[in-house]
Design a protein that fits this description.
- The chain is built from 12 helices and 11 strands.
- With about 325 residues, it is of the alpha/beta class.
- The strands form 2 sheets. An 8-stranded parallel beta sheet has the order 7-6-5-4-3-2-1-10. A 3-stranded antiparallel beta sheet has the order 8-9-11.
- β4, α5 and β5 form a beta-alpha-beta unit.
- α4 packs parallel to α5 and α7 runs parallel beside α8.
- The chain starts with a strand and ends with a helix.
Length: about 325
């Protein structure tokens, strides 16, 4: 298992792929997972340059296709499928076959969005099979791991997988460890992210933290991931922002029918423990912590996460 960076984390430094690879190499990361396809462009010669630079420097690279959801783009399923098809073909030329995507964000949550994404996936399935490629959906606030697993069952794990964001599980009150246990065979790319949880008026709020400084149970999660995919890459994604998980809201609960009492209990136990530590002053007040711009803390955060994860991987 290798430990790298997700390009979104360092976007405030540069959005140029070569510069991002240089940055990762300099700091001892093992590779970069690139964000939306628009940042890489369509120029095959430029893409070859990016891939060659990464290979020469022994850095892994993963790429993302555009959002798969015609409702997000306000276009037709056929148009969305056409764009993704061209990206699959182009990326396959460069040896990129494990491709990340998303259905949108929190605003794209809903069964109609999932059905629209599934429709596009059915259209592009023959292309994915022809080129030996797979689309890995991130749990990006738009969907839960339960919902991605249903898409995999519907369309096939040969062409659909998961880009697991370990901390985004908690945006839907999923317990990170339980999510990994049910998803491990289908996780092909990752966003290695951590966070803390604390109670608020609407329920629980998640705040992003570097890997190793939050509630994600890496000691139990990494062996599970390693057992299923020894070549899995851990791409650190980190940022600020507070996400409300409205577990006190009946409508929110009804929108999460897969969430059982045991898993909700594990989630709220984490929130209770963090809230106790905040009250005792063992964890800095989250609202005060959030005031410092991410860029001012970025270097310390990503290096801390890298060192923590690499140490954990070495133990495996």
């Amino acid at each position: 298992m290798k430990v790298g960076l997700d390009a979104f984390t360092i976007r405030e430094i540069s959005t140029d792929p070569i510069e991002q690879l240089k940055f990762a190499k300099k700091l001892g990361f093992d590779g970069v997972q690139f964000d939306e396809a628009c940042y890489l462009g369509k120029d095959v010669s430029r893409l070859k340059e990016i891939r060659s630079f990464a290979d020469e420097n022994e850095l892994y690279t993963h790429v993302s296709v555009d959002v798969i959801n015609p409702l997000f783009h306000k276009t037709t399923a056929e148009e969305n499928a056409g764009i993704i098809t061209e990206q699959i073909k182009t990326f396959a030329q460069l040896g990129w076959h494990e491709l990340r995507t998303r259905m949108g964000g929190l605003e794209e949550r809903g069964e109609h969005h999932r059905k629209a994404a599934a429709e596009v996936m059915k259209m592009i399935k023959p292309v994915l099979k022809e080129y030996g490629s797979r689309i890995n959906f991130e749990n990006h606030g738009d969907c839960t791991t339960f919902e991605i697993l249903r898409m995999i069952e519907q369309i096939g794990d040969d062409v659909v997988g998961i880009n697991l964001d370990t901390a985004n599980t908690m945006v839907h009150a999923e317990d990170p460890l339980l999510a990994v246990k049910r998803c491990a065979p289908y996780i092909n790319t990752t966003h290695a992210k951590d966070g803390i949880l604390f109670f608020t008026e609407k329920g629980v709020t998640r705040q992003g933290r570097p890997a190793g400084s939050g509630v994600v149970e890496w000691e139990q999660i990494l062996p599970l991931l390693f057992a299923n995919n020894k070549n899995l890459t851990l791409s650190i994604e980190d940022h600020k922002w507070l996400f409300e998980v409205e577990i006190f809201n009946e409508a929110w609960i009804l929108d999460h029918p897969d969430l059982n009492a045991y898993e909700l209990g594990q989630f709220t136990k984490k929130a209770w423990r963090c809230s106790e530590k905040i009250f005792k002053g063992e964890i800095q007040d989250p609202l005060e912590f959030e005031k410092t711009p991410f860029i001012e803390e970025m270097m310390d955060r990503i290096i801390s996460a890298k060192n923590y994860l690499k140490n954990m991987v070495e133990k495996l």
